[in-house]
Amino acid sequence: MVTAFAPLAWFIVAWLSLGGLFVLLGRTVDEGRRARDGALIAASHGFGLFLAGVSWIHVSLSVFGGMPAAVAALATVLFCLLLSIFPALAGALYVRLAATGWLRRALLFAALWTFGEWLRGWVLTGFPWLSAGYAQTPPSPLAGYAPLLGVLGVSLASALVAALLSEVLRRWLTIDDCPARGWLRWCPALPLVGVALTLVAGQMLRELRWTQPVGEPISVALLQGNVAQEMKWRPERFMESLRIYYQLARDHPAQLTILPETALPAFLDQVPGEYVDALQDLAQRQHGDLLLGVAVSEGHRKYFNSALSLGASGRQRYDKVHLVPFGEFVPPGFAWFMAMANIPMSDFTAGLPRQPPLSLAGQQVAVNICYEDVFGEEIIAALPAATLLLNISNVAWFGDSLAPAQHLQIARMRALESGRMMLRATNTGMTAIIGVDGSVHAVLPPFTRGALRGEVSGHAGATPYVRWGNWPVVVLTLLLMAVAGCRRSRADP
């Protein structure tokens, strides 16, 4: 199923993979097997997906984190096993609750899979990476559900299409064995109509525009320094990093210039004051604003992963709220684990929730840092006040893996959900400008040094997802589970 996600993005593969799981779980029910059998089947499906899809965790731990390769491999496997608990729960409940009738089974499967993804998105701070909905970015017709119900709604639609397609195939394969009467019970047309309606509705929703441009378009320059991760934190390379980003900012003037996460590899008070003043002067000469990623120390043992603005609009700051376990904070009882890794700045303090957008270049910019844009419901906290979304990241931690392309795909979903353009400035890739329809307007090649320049527009208004978040789809899944899970003896026609 991992091929359904970026970089390949063969979205139909997600339907085939989930459809296969639906068939296997259905056989488990028909054979009268136990819920634990369904749990093992779904867990195996999930484990394979996660092991292939987030293999970049091993890269960050062993290659750049300094952890012994064997220990890093074990940690990655254990993490994938932990993630597999959620599809296992969905599989067990399906076997427990499934009744007769193809439609009830399809609805139950879609609801349980989506509910499992929702749980995975917040339990233990959450890890919603590789949710099925992310595979349905454009050109998939199911992308149209994103502004309405968010990525979870897209997952629900995707799982439903997968189940219905499996039913279509089953009926085609068994049609010759059916009696002459009661043909409707076996006719592939009925589930096929369900597939068609879901896809057509999604495509029609893609044509709707939930937000409107506001203000004058602004020029942007997104800087990609391409500083190797193994070199970035070496003291002897510190001044070189500063020089790289200053030259890029100087050579590519714009109303809004963006440097990536921790572009300055030190705490702000360790950066030469004359360098910060030079960036300030540069932004003012360009009659614009410059936003840079830098760590900030404050008080006693308070360290923030921050974005700091300089220039015409004055100094403003955003502090990262949703920190990465092990990478940015040490969970209680895991100090021994972190002692085996060499991860700089791994004990940050979370910023205040619901920080207001930054006023930059005449736009209200909702800033998020790296991993934060995986959490759509947290992103919309700054909306509808914000007119632009901005993500700064340092994905160099994951090398030449699947992570940068997957992260870009996630950012595309955030643009769809919010009806806002999304800007991404990264150290090594994928630096990109994303439109309100989830399309990639421009992207820099990974592992190259340069600036991505373009013109972007702010947008006002609110999509249904911005107004309501995940709760409509959560309630919908619970209702479907309650209705579809009712055991009845009579099969659907």
Word description of this protein:
By secondary structure, the protein is α/β, with parallel strands linked by helices. It has 2 domains: about 1-175 and about 185-210 and about 470-485, no CATH class; about 210-460, Carbon-nitrogen hydrolase (Nitrilase/N-carbamoyl-D-aminoacid amidohydrolase, 4-Layer Sandwich), CATH 3.60.110.10. The chain is built from 17 helices and 13 strands. It has helices spanning about 10-30, 35-55, 55-65, 70-85, 85-95, 100-120, 145-175, 185, 190-205, 230, 240-250, 275-285, 335-340, 375-380, 405-420, 465-470, 470-485; strands at about 210-225, 255-260, 265, 290-295, 305-310, 315-320, 360, 365-370, 390-395, 420-425, 430-435, 440-445, 450-460. The strands form 2 sheets. Strands 1, 2, 3, 4, 5, 6 and 13 form a 7-stranded mixed beta sheet that branches. Strands 7-8-9-10-11-12 form a 6-stranded mixed beta sheet, covered by helices on one side. Helix 1 (about 10-30) packs antiparallel against helix 2 (about 35-55), helix 2 packs across helix 4 (about 70-85) and helix 7 runs parallel beside helix 17. The longest helix has 29 residues, at about 145-175.
